[in-house]
Amino acid sequence: MPPAVPPGPDPLSEALHSHGLVAILRARGHGPLLDAIRVLVEAGVRIVEVTIPTPGSMEAVAAAAKEFGSEVLIGTGTVLTTEDVSRTADAGGRFVVCPHTDPVVITAARASGLGSLPGAYTPTEVLTAWRCAPSAVKIFPASALGPHYVAGLAAPLPDIPVVPTGGIGVDDIAAYRGAGAVAVGVSSPLIGDALSGGSLTELHHRARRYVLASGDHTS
Q1: Cβ–Cβ under 8 Å, residues 116 and 135
Q2: What are the chain's domains?
Q3: Is the pTM of the predicted complex or chain greater than 0.70?
C-alpha cells in the first residue's frame, strides 16, 4: 500500500527528517517553560512540544512561537480534541501530538495547516493512524517495546515514518534510528528537573548530547 501523503506543505514532516529529535516539556506545576525552551533552542533543538496539561503551556507556546518564528517548530502535546487543535493554531503552534489516534483530530490539524503526530502501539494502530495522513506516527510508550519492536514494524511497513517516544535515553537513540525511526521524542531523560528548580545549565548540556546523538549536526 502506498503511504498516505498529507496535502500541501507539512511543517513537521521535514523537520523530523532533518533534526531527528522532539523535546517534550511536561510538568505538573508551574515552571520556567519559556526559559527552558530558550535553553533547548540554544543547544540546537529545533522541535519542541509543550504538553497542554502543563500549567502555562499555551502562553509558553505563543511566546516561543513569536520569539523564534520559523527557526523552531513549537507545538503542543497531549492533544485530545479539535478544541485543543484550534487553541494550538491560535497560539501560533505548528503541530500537535496525541497519545492516541483520532482521525477527527488529525483532520482538524491538517485543515488548520498544522503537522500532527498521533500515538499508536500495535501494527493495526500504526496503519490506521497513517491512513489519516499525519506527519508521522508516534510509537508510544516506546520504553515498553524497544528498538527491536520498531525494526519489526519497519519490516512490513517500511514507508511509514515512526517516532518512538517515552523513556529514551541518549545512548538508546542510535539503536532506534538504526531500527528505522525517523526521529525520537524525549521528555524526562532530557528535561530532567529543569522545570522544577533544576539547573538550566545542565539542561543545556543534556540537550546538546541529545542533538548530536540524534544525528542533527546542522546546529
Answers
A1: yes
A2: 20-211 (3.20.20.70)
A3: yes
